[in-house]
Design brief:
It contains 8 helices and no strands. By secondary structure, the chain is an all-alpha fold. The protein has one domain.
Length: 210
């Protein structure tokens, strides 16, 4: 029992990391970073920040979570973890449509272009991941980690502000996220690394063009 205890602790820690850095929460974290980072975007009125965060929480976190009990009841998915590739398809399609709806809403707001670019890029990345998932299982947690790293880099470059601390923190968080997916034995190394790269390049290239 004593020998297995460290393993149990690491496994529990991996599960906690998986919950804290759930893919649905990553865009909200990204928006929060945009608002608190020491750039011009940080001077947006608090009411505007609060409204945008509220929209993302409702559209892209609460609504996707609310459909899970229905999918479980109808036996479309077997558990809240949704670890099977095919079970993810419906939820990913639903989530992508919600990101598109969020993009449509935010585009109509008089907010900086960078914020509109971020949410559109997030919707585009969700679409790409959905398409990939039809043929191959990719780590959604790793996609979120890569996207977060890419966002901090793009934010630093476009706002001409060094964000070394934020970038290092995002990279370290990404390392924990990838390690947790492997520790939980839910993905293999190829799936987590491909997810990280897909999230990073998918978001950064999208934000350069949108």
């Amino acid at each position: 029992m004593t020998i297995d205890k460290p393993k149990d602790i690491l496994y529990s820690l991996a599960k906690i990391i998986a919950i804290i850095f759930h893919p649905l929460l990553m865009p909200v974290y990204g928006m929060a970073i945009i608002f608190i980072a020491p750039t011009l975007l940080g001077y947006l009125p608090f009411n505007v920040k609060k409204l945008l965060i509220f929209i993302m929480l409702v559209d892209n976190v609460l609504l996707p979570l609310s459909i899970l009990p229905f999918l479980i009841q109808k036996k479309i998915i077997t558990s809240w973890a949704i670890s099977e590739r095919k079970e993810r398809n419906i939820l990913l399609i639903f989530t992508t449509l919600l990101y598109c709806a969020t993009s449509f809403i935010i585009i109509r707001f008089p907010v900086p272009v960078f914020l509109k670019s971020f949410i559109i890029a997030t919707a585009f990345l969700s679409l790409i991941v959905t398409i990939i998932n039809f043929w191959w299982k990719i780590s959604l947690h790793s996609v979120g980690a890569g996207a977060l790293i890419g966002l901090v880099l793009i934010l630093s470059l476009k706002m001409l502000t060094p964000l070394d601390g934020y970038l290092i923190s995002a990279i370290i968080a990404g390392g924990f996220i990838l390690s947790s997916r492997l520790k939980l034995n839910l993905h293999n190394p190829k799936q987590v690394w491909f997810g990280l790269l897909a999230g990073f390049f998918g978001l950064t290239f999208s934000m350069l063009f949108f």
